[in-house]
Design goal:
Glutaredoxin; alpha+beta; 14% strand
Length: 202
């Protein structure tokens, strides 16, 4: 009868680890949760739109984007009013306000993109672009947020709803603001005006 040699346990364990890692990468890729291999700026990412279709951040190249993870039932939800005001005030100068609904913090988002859209339009008159509901933290976070964590560290990541990222015209984070910094704060206005000045200078 043929004889079989037992595989070296170390080699077997290493092979199993590599196979498991490969399987995880494949599964994440199939779910669309893997960052582009050459991701360098926010312009390398896109989001599903609340209206259907896709919002490509590359379409905002040369503009300033205030990207905010939002929720409809949060103590900070009233900041939608300030976000709409910023959009109305600065959009002609090159600002895009982008709402990113998420249920990651306190389960405070509505059950569907349609419900979120109706709530925002009816309650706050929102007409700036918004994405579908996405994950913003953890292993299943949208690739944009994985990139932020990798390139800018944990301080730039949302800790609650209405965390704000200010993306410069080159696609890099120019600044970020905690949920407690209101959308109508002078601090955010000054940061937006500073970023817009670089747009006007070109």
């Amino acid at each position: 009868m043929p004889t079989y040699r037992a595989m070296n346990p170390i080699i077997f364990k290493t092979s199993l680890t590599h196979a498991t890692a490969a399987l995880v990468v494949i599964l994440l890729f199939l779910k669309g949760a893997v960052m582009p291999a050459t991701a360098a700026t926010a312009h390398d990412f896109s989001f599903p739109s609340i209206d259907g279709g896709t919002i490509a951040l590359s379409d905002y190249r040369g503009k300033v984007v205030l990207l905010v993870n939002t929720a409809s039932k949060c103590g900070f939800t009233g900041q939608y009013k300030g976000l709409q005001s910023l959009w109305t005030r600065y959009r002609d100068a090159g600002l895009v306000v982008l709402g990113v609904p998420s249920d990651d913090f306190g389960g405070q988002e509505l059950d569907s993109a349609g419900a979120v859209k109706e709530f925002c339009e009816m309650t706050y008159g929102i007409d700036f672009p918004m994405t579908d509901i996405v994950r913003v933290k953890g292993a299943a976070a949208h690739p944009y947020y994985q990139w932020v964590a990798a390139d800018y560290g944990g301080l730039a990541m949302p800790r609650w709803n209405f965390h704000k990222h200010l993306i410069g015209p080159d696609g890099r984070l120019a600044d970020w603001f905690m949920s407690t910094t209101g959308a109508d704060s002078r601090k955010i206005e000054q940061a937006i005006e500073k970023a817009l000045a670089t747009v006007a200078a070109k």
